[in-house]
Amino acid sequence: MEHGSFSVKVHDRHHLEWKLVWPLERSRRRDKIGLEVFLFLPQSLRIRRDTYSRTEFYEDLTTYTRYGSPDMPFAEILDKQNPLSPLTRVARQRTEQPDLLQRRTRVSYELRVLMCIVRGRMSKDTLAIRRLLTKAREAPTPDQGMLEEAARLTRVTLENTRHVLERVRELKREYAAPASDSALMRAFEFTDEGLSLECEERCAKLYRAGRPALSKPGEAPEALSDAWTALREMIEAESRHRRQACYPSQPNLAPGVNAALNNERWLYRRGALKKYAQSTLYLSLHQAPGSRSILSALYAGAAMIAMLAFVLTLWFLRDIAPMNSLPYLVLAVIAYAFKDRIKEGLRSYFSERMTGFLRDREGQLLDRGPTRRGVGETSEAFVFVDEAKLPEDVQHLRNRDEISQAAALEAPESVLKYQKQLVVHLDRVFAQRERVTELNELMRLSVQRFLYHMDDAQKVFYRPYIKEAAAPGANFEANSGSDALSAPVPALSPQQVMKRGRARKTYHVNIIVRATGPGLPKHGRLQRFRVILSRDGIERIEHPPRPEKM
Predict the structure, then answer these.
(1) pLDDT (average), residues 408-425
(2) Which residue from 285, 286, 157, 185 is spatially nearest to 245, judged by alpha carbons?
(3) Is 94 in contact with 311 (CB distance < 8 Å)?
(4) Which of 62, 125, 199, 523 is the most buried (most CB within 10 A)?
(5) Which pLDDT tens digit goes with each residue over 226-261?
(6) Phi and psi of 177, rounded to 5°?
(7) Cα 131 from Cα 150, distance rounded (Å)
(8) What's the Cα-to-Cα distance from 258 to each of 240, 242, 357, rounded to whole Å?
(9) β-bridge partners, 493
(10) Which DSSP helix (H) or strand (E) runs through 382?
(11) What's the average model confidence in pLDDT over 331-352?
């Protein structure tokens, strides 16, 4: 896996999501991971030092630190001799753990880990099948070999998933007899329902992906048709199982208010079960104010220096004019104005110079597993920076084209810099998490404040085009299409016409990210993205080509 792989995606119309994937290696005791995010904002958005505060930025930013879902093949999950399999650990807790509270904690934890593993495994397997179907469909003629391989993988995935579900339900019955623990039974029910919903959702997506290949009779192999019949049967079987178990997670496709309310509750419950499973992967953060108290002390020092200059000025003014005279009053007011400017100038100086050393927020990362042990520390800082003071490699990667350079002459971009540092103690992580292989840092930024001063998303424009009229005596049908602009017809007399069109008014926000840490180059790895915004929110994300080396 590549160190420091970074991706940006649209979470919804008003939220941008960044994700850093960091592999964890047992050969190291500690990883120090650095992340710098530079946002280049057009001046027309009016996001500046005086309009966008540090507090507002952190209100817009939500960060999560979590482990990646453990990657375990179905064969290892179902292996009763595999000590890392959650199913094996749940079965052993029943006979090896006499303490009821400890058993409840460990079993609930392993069941949630199982949900994460199965979800990740089904996602990878079904994605591989969908890619095969896409390749087969895009071939000049349907590739029978690919379609048959997709059918085989589908049957294998269904069989493995069915075995996992049967094993979970078997363990649930074993723990229910002779005397059941209500909290433990609730954990089994959540796991059973969550896995059933996940299986149904993945099978439904796969079923839809295969419909185009099955829509043409005679082109799809019989094996694919049989596999898709098995998919439909699996979906129906899981829906029937949840009804028999009285799980309140049944969508209703009938029209009406009651069905809509039922579907709302179903979607909420599905999301809650997903969070229930993934909660075991997330790290808790105990946050502290950071080292900004040092900066506050420097601000106080700046105020003291300014006040001292003011008092000394008043002291020397005694020899120039009497204290109760008008000249003395005028000079005192002037001295006070300079005192205020000295204080603000020193505050700005300290703020810009100390951002690289001081942190806005600091915190301790706690594992949410049974031990609740600290496994790392985190710190963050945010500041506006002048573009001329950016590192050379960042300026080079920004790589404005000619039109962007012309626009930036009179209205240079505002540059926001966000820094985050993670220190992960790998020896502590692996002491309690034997199955983890990576750490994910998720950041979600709301762009709603960026939209306040934007123009309307739709702009109307008028463009002249040539509507051809036939000359007297000519037999010609007027062409009002696009070809009328380019096709010369000497025998025609042109008439100018105005036609209305529409275009999206968009704004470009460029993002440059630098990741640093073990296994990366000395100056880290830089990546660039471009976010296209409109008044309606995020339109899309582009990946501009990297400029040639300097």
Answers:
(1) 84
(2) 185
(3) no
(4) 199
(5) 898 999 999 999 999 999 999 988 887 777 778 888
(6) -120, 140
(7) 9
(8) 21, 20, 57
(9) 469
(10) strand 374-385
(11) 66
